[in-house]
Fold these 2 entries.
Entry 1:
Amino acid sequence: MKRANIIPGFRFMLVVAMLLLTTLALLLRAAYLQIWHSDYLQKQGNARYLRVVSDAPYRGMILDRNGEPLAISTPVESIWAQPEVLAEARDQWPRLARKLEISQSELAKQIRHHQGKEFMYLKRQVSPEFARSVSALDIPGVSLQREYRRYYPAGEAAGHIVGFTNVDDIGQEGVELAYNDWLSGKPGRKRVLKDRLGNIVESVESISLPEPGRDLVLSIDRRIQYLAYRELKEAVAQHKAKGGTAVVMDVRTGEVLAMVNQPGFNPNNRKNFRSRYFRNRAVTDLFEPGSTLKPFTIAAALESGNFSPRSLVNTSPGAVLIGSKKIRDERNYGWLTLTRVIEKSSNVGAAKIALQLGKQSIWDMLTRVGFGEETHSGLPGEVSGLINPPDQWAKLDHATISFGYGISVTSLQLARAYAAIANNGYMVNPTLVRTDAVKLEHRVLPVEITHQLRYMLERAAGTKGTGQAADIAHYRVAGKTGTVHKLIDGQYAEERYMGLFAGMVPASNPRLVMVVTIDDPHRGGYFGGQIAAPVFRKVMSGALRLLNIAPDQPNKPGQQVVQVNLRPAV
């Protein structure tokens, strides 16, 4: 009986002792971890709630030559998530998908795709208001991240020259791509504290500060850029053309003041992006320059010493047969001086002059003024053009190249070549970055010949020339029209043309050169003097006023100066 009473008492004491020992062990373990070994727990906590994240840098601005912004970065928010955490909150998916305007199946697919990873984007570069509305849902694993998005104040007017960046702020086209390293900053790193849902609740410390990108000042004048854009777009629409280009260049420095193309694109409106509109036709598209090349044929003739501006060439009966090909003029001009060959744009006259010169002298002249090589503008996709070596020229090639067939150039190349005539024979390489220094690279034409060519080009843009529609009141204009049949599938199409005009103002002491091309017009004519010269007149009359360039013939009558409206459409 006594033994039976003793056993339950012993068991009770044993259980109490074990509980006391266990409690003591736990207390000792807690004291060890929190007093003598507290660093361990702190590190474990930090590993779960402290994270090192990237701190986005500010991309440098792109400015025009007068400090007007062409590309700026604005702060935006991006929505991201921790896939593992979000996967466990499946009941929250319908609310999140509805807010992000995607289907639940699409959200589930994204989560599965990022399984095993710690990071995934849900939506990039949204407005702060939208980001706050998503954050207010308080969904586990969903957080916000500050980023920057590019905004282009000039919109379509400067789309091709400025280009755009992708969602990661990396340049994709235009200056944004060409000068990406200059504009890009260096990301910083910071340590942040996150809550159990993965949201950043506190910035603990900055490990390294982000380095902002550097600003870039372009040679572009936003006012002239918009003026050229407006007039070119209107001309392309008026003539139902396939496209067009316009380039304005300062002949003293090589600075490109305007470069526009049609069709265009608005870099701010990415929903309607079409990759075929991205290319900058002024440097990527080749064309045969037609009669705008004749001044260089005449320059080779004058340089030979066998011709003068008054030398005569017989163009009767308005055509000449070379091999099986007949070269024609618009009509029979009879005997023409070299000056009038330019004024009347005689193909027969240019061909006969070229055939009296050696092939090598023609080729030397054309390559000397930059045809067949890149302008080194730095723009993506620039091509060098095409001019075959003279030993590959047949007699017909020798003749047709004198009036711009059998050679391929870009608009910027043509502008550079005309700048050499305007700049008293000195070549300047085009630049897209502002420079106040006069750049006389090297002489490619004798000064006397450039004076003679400018006189001839004045006649060509005068009342008896093919470029009279380029006339500007109170200013002397020198320029040349061009009209070429388009090459389609290896054959020249009878009803497909490109109209061109290349010219300079003021002719007495040129400051600006402009090249205009209108591609494949279908209404209102196709001659360069009809469709391209008026664009030159309208843009140059406005640019001369904007730059305060004094008239060189104040009493000269002419067409009314265009009114300059400088309000760009974004």
Entry 2:
Amino acid sequence: MIRQPIISVLGHVDHGKTTLLDYIRKSAVARRESGGITQHIGATEVPIEVVQGICGDVLKTWKITIPGLLFIDTPGHRAFVNLRTRGGSLADLAVLIVDVNDGFQPQTLESIAILKRLKTPFVVAANKIDRLGWKGSNVSFVKSVKDQADFVLQELEEKMWSLIGDLSLNGYEADRFDRIKDFTERVAIVPISAKNGVGVSEILMLIAGLAQRFLEKKLALDLTGEAKGTILEVKEEVGMGTTIDVILYDGTLNKGDAIVLGGMEDLIFTKVRALLKPMPLDEIRDPRQRFQYLDSVSAACGVKISAPALERALAGAPLYIDTPENRQKIREEIQKIRIEKEALGVVIRADTLGTLEALVSELKDSVAIRKADVGEVGKTDVMEALSVRKEDYYLGVIFAFNTKVTEEARRVAEDNRIKIFEDDVIYRLTEGYAQWVEQEKLREMTRKRQELIFPCKFKILPEYIFRTTKPAIVGVEILLGTLKPKYDVITAEGKKVGTIKSIKSKDEFLSKVQKGEQVAVSIEGPTVGRQISEEEVLYSDLPKEDYKILLKSDLSEDERQALEEIDQIKRKHNEFWYL
């Protein structure tokens, strides 16, 4: 038996995902097809009769035997972010919705990264062509082309090339669907108006046809086999307590079956108390008849499960029939994500196992991960990050992906200067971290530069000996570079003679002086006439660590010359002094 393919609908917020699904639902209800259309919690089933009704003649070239299409339905931005990773992993095919006017946006790029990682085939719906001035409604794209003005066709063509270019930059060859001969080699782009129904028939035709032609073996299954599913959401339902919304992708699940599923702390073992599906769409608003109770459900479908002990169920975790083998399988799958990976690394918290998996996948090649887990950020997470910060503050940070930070955790983090990155889009989270690292590096470089001893060459002026010792106070002229208080001073032979105690010009003490300036300096250590003398040339003494940094720094021409002279002085005593 062939099951219906699971279709994930992805894309940037407000690009028209829900509008497309709403158009399909309304069309199905209006046509009063046999079986209608049933919207499940987290999923929308579209029987093949509905697909054929919407597609009409467009579908006649394909021999269709699949029973329908199951769309993973995640309305709303928050749910979309929560579920799309698991949706992608569950999906046999995907529809990537892109606003043809806005082009690729952060969540578009994030969606493509997920589809690429999971190797999920997809088609692109280039939505909102009505805003280009495209005329028509409830019609195929190909049929509507002849009714369009030349300037509209030209603008669409330009938008198509832009999308094709963006897909190419992300590793995909693409073209408009009606120009493709081999759908295994190129990603199909279908211009649509989800609002007016233009091109929707071709989207459904491509999904059904491609699933039929290329996924027949994958879709074949034994419905008598063990039930396998993925938890989409954990919800509190009035009169039922905590329930879970599940996509069943293999086998049959019966009322009373013993099941095992992933939980926040450990596995959850329970028995199915009830299997629920909503009534057909046109009756869903009546809460007294909201759900129909079933004795069994078969893949592929979306179903709400009522059972004891679901309070700590983990969204994104697998659900299987309870056997010793399946218990171990779930533990291994969850543990692959929720392990401490490095002694030094970032701490990650996410709202679901699926989003955690996506974030870990995004970060693991660029940053070490110390801990990755599901749930809110607590004080223990901050302490984990703090222990790392002492060694490497770039890694002593926390990523909170679409999850809460407790007040205590936030307070402890602020007190200890632990950075917490919070967002509900992976792209923005990782981008924010990268920008912060660059800013911190710049700040660190600025701080180190301020603390560095810079190269300086200066000369004691004759007849400007104000004091010979304890400390010696002399007039000097800065020949090269920069001089500051606390700099150690060496002679042209490399002998240390003392330390600059202060710098003064007239009645003002100075924090630094540069090439060309004449000032009075006090030098702790030497005696004029013994260790130093009139007209003698002296240099700042550079520690080797400072020298290494200065070599790579943006120095002025005179600072660079002073650095080279000091290097030559040091090499007279030790050729490898800087190592």
